[in-house]
Amino acid sequence: MSTRAGFIALIGEPNAGKSTLLNRMVGAKVSIVTHKVQTTRARIRGVAMEGVAQLVFVDTPGLFKPRRRLDRAMVAAAWSGAADADVVVLLIEANRGVTEGVERILEGLADIGQGRKVALAINKIDRVEAPVLLGLSQDMNTRYPFVETFMISAEKGYGVDALRGWLAEQVPEGPWLYPEDQIADLPMRMIAAEMTREKLTLRLHQELPYQLTVETENWEERKDGSARVDQIVYVIRDGHKGIVLGNKGETIKSVSKAAREELEAFLGRPVHLFLQVKVRPNWLDEAERYTEMGLDFKDGNG
Q1: Largest Cα–Cα distance in the chain?
Q2: pTM above 0.70?
């Protein structure tokens, strides 16, 4: 039997559940998942095997109305991911319905969607009654010609197998694009930085300014099988540095411990993680920082 392989773009508003769905599809944590919006910056690809098909998921940043350079670069990356994919899955939240943001995405789909397979996945179906779901599905399908509609709960796993099975049938015949045991095409340095950034987001909640980023400065493989990982947390103000460090450094210690434990579980071996916090007022305008996040600095213009 011939193999299949293709790219699938997951698009939707921030917090629609794209990262949760990606992690559920792949069966491992490759994309940052938090309760804060706009946490997925780079186009993280997760790779899932389904029978003879290899599904390469492009977890795009959430589509929203951009205001800053970083926002514009993230939205450009999302639409670029959708335009390059073999199949596009629009994820919307059942409990939010057709928002202004969803309407904006539908307009964008009309521009890139000709001849492209676009499926609708209504997420968080456990939060609404069946008649509401049915009405939402009918409304969305009158607005756009989706080739298929799925009712899912990315968090609980309902309907995800059906969606994955359908996607396996849609991707084109051809050789696999990645080794069978590879689950993401991001370098480990970036995955490690994302893990730390997630822990900072979860720990700091409302205090956390979006204007911080984490970079893995050094990765050293040791003879005993462990790894030493040095990371820098960049913030744009001195006051932010104090928030990240916390009283007597307890916040950064707690974040470092949580990130190290997750990284060790991911790699299956000991990790020595060292974090530094540095003030870099203009990092949001430095091309190098965007490259590190897998974004195009030029896309932030306009």
Answers
A1: 61
A2: no
